[in-house]
Specification:
Blueprint lengths: L16 E3 L1 H9 L5 E6 L1 H4 L9 E4 L2 H5 L11 E5 L7 H7 L7 E5 L4 H13 L4 E5 L8 H7 L8 E4 L2 H10 L2 E6 L7 H4 L4 E7 L7 H5 L3 E3 L12 H14 L2
Parallel strand pairs: 2-3, 5-6, 5-9, 6-7, 8-9, 8-10
Antiparallel strand pairs: 1-4, 2-4
Length: 248
């Protein structure tokens, strides 16, 4: 390796390590993100405008493969970054005043691939943001950033201590809270109306917890056939966001 700066053997526990072109370039282009160190092949780094404050290490593909999880598709770029600043729920709700962008609440969705995919769908359908618990949700990571394909930098992600209290605050902000669950009697299309929508989704398998369901204004299901029992939570989120965007 030819390098500028040092090469740590692994990322500090609190510092995410991103990999893949979308994730790393999006982090570089986000003024709110502090990028500490970038490793890359000469080809991948060619033409990138990287500030002098960021340490850069030139590496071959095999070197990069040792910096990330096994078989991770790094595409010639790896970066250590600082986590984004925390966002307060009240600030996010204030940003959404006067528009009808939907909000997504995830109840104990712990798979980073799913959270990343939901962030991508949230960006695609211009959601206001996502809300998760501080615990029982994945931290920012290379897996989340890779699955989000750069949208981790674009979609506000609020972490709260108590999801029930957060849902109460969301209600006061004027959202109609719809919990998606297969045991609901009505479909999402039947219950949406014209109100501002907050979609609440639970973990695959367990679904929403009882107290979370109790803090929803309405429960609804997606109109899927009986050939499958349920959809992956990220697929369900994408379909639900489309339904909100397409409502008449």
């Amino acid at each position: 390796m030819a390098k500028r700066g040092h090469r740590p053997s692994k990322a500090p526990p609190s510092r995410p390590r991103f990999y893949g072109r979308h994730a790393v370039l999006a982090a570089l282009n986000n003024p709110e993100r502090n990028v500490r160190h970038i490793w890359g092949t000469h080809e991948a780094l060619a033409g990138l405008d990287i500030p002098n404050s960021i340490q850069v290490t030139f590496a071959n593909a095999a070197d990069l493969g040792r910096l990330v999880p096994s078989d991770a598709p790094h595409q010639g770029l790896v970066a250590d970054v600082d986590p984004l600043e925390d966002i307060w729920l009240g600030d996010l709700l204030a940003q959404g005043e006067g528009d009808d962008r939907p909000l997504i609440v995830l109840d104990q969705v712990t798979d980073p691939h799913n959270v990343g995919a939901i962030l991508r769908s949230a960006a695609a359908f211009d959601a206001l943001g996502i809300v998760t618990q501080d615990r029982h949700a994945p931290p920012e990571s290379g897996t989340v950033a890779r699955s989000a394909a750069g949208t981790l930098e674009a979609v506000p992600w609020v972490r709260v201590v108590n999801l029930a209290r957060a849902l109460e605050e969301i209600e006061r902000a004027g959202f109609w809270r719809i919990g998606l669950t297969g045991h609901a009697d009505q479909t999402l299309g039947e219950v949406m109306g014209k109100a501002r929508i907050c979609l609440v989704l639970g973990a695959e398998g367990e679904g929403m917890r009882q107290n979370t369901e109790a803090h929803c204004d309405q429960l609804a299901k997606l109109p899927i056939s009986d050939k499958v029992e349920s959809l992956n939570v990220s697929n369900a989120a994408a379909i639900a966001l489309y339904a909100v965007a397409a409502r008449g």
